[in-house]
Predict the structure.
Amino acid sequence: MTGVVEIFEVGPRDGLQNEPRPIPTADKIALVDTLSQAGFRRIEVASFVSPKWVPQMADSAEVLAGIARAPGIRYAALTPNLKGYERARAAGADVIAIFGSASEGFSRANINATIAESLARFEEVAAAARADGMPMRGYVSCVTDCPYDGKVAPGQVAQVAEKLLALGCYEISLGDTIGQGTPDSVTAMLRAVRDVVPAERLAGHFHDTAGRALDNIEAALAQGVRVFDAAVGGLGGCPYAKGATGNVATEAVAARLAALGYDTGLDPAVLDRAAALARAMRG
Ligand code: HMG
Ligand code: MG
């Protein structure tokens, strides 16, 4: 064994948020309950964003209320602002996540704010989370390429990641939102980010639009990253990033990591069942 790598399952959130067809809450709960048997330690199941912006996530509180919580698993939710944080806390989220962007174009399109404005909003969320003892994760989107601004400089990613760390995020997830990163651009980006955030506090979040996500994960492993976000069945995308199809599939990441000698602690048979459920939910 080469060591332990954690897969952070984001399918019920990132995987489903982009589906145009309304998915019944009971189906979302069934997916989470299956995933809870697979061996994950963290599953992102909800998003307390504006229901006008992302209608698919409007039932997030019902999902959190309906799942059978398994011991040892933390159920996570996205929170773009204080209102989202308060909804997430009331619904019983175990972990929240603020989400910013390394590029101005995507920040504006996704959360209707400049990067500076978003960081000011996140400060309010961070203060509330700190007071409540709520663990907070941070996402940086567009870490190599932006659908609006093109190539993103590694230094811009490092700047935003450093600020999220200073706000109290226990982990920063680096998002290749539109799946255009390459092993070279991912390596250059991680070298810059590692100057300001230790590798143990980083996660890789790769969309598989161009089919390079697994290679990019290998590049990130070489830079010391040991947590990867993935969505079972390869569902997903971002409604505000055209072309951002599919997160890398959890079962494919688990298989690649196993072939490389890493232990994920995941049960492939349960992952296959969850992937079949996830694919059936696709419109
Ligand atoms: P805004 O319109 O600028 O917000 O949206 P506002 O503060 O002006 O409020 C407008 C209305 O929204 C008000 O209601 C608020 O109460 C309501 P009204 O008075 O008109 O009836 N509102 C809310 N309602 C419920 N929950 C809330 C909330 N906040 C305001 N939290 C906002 C700003 C950030 C809210 C909006 O832009 C938004 O919700 N954006 C979310 C977009 C999104 O979810 N994108 C996908 C997730 S990010 C992603 O997928 C990337 C990631 O996977 C990593 C990667 O791949 O790179 C994480
Ligand atoms: Mg994503």
Observations:
- Residues 154 and 189 are 4 Å apart (CA to CA).
- The chain has a mean pLDDT of 96.
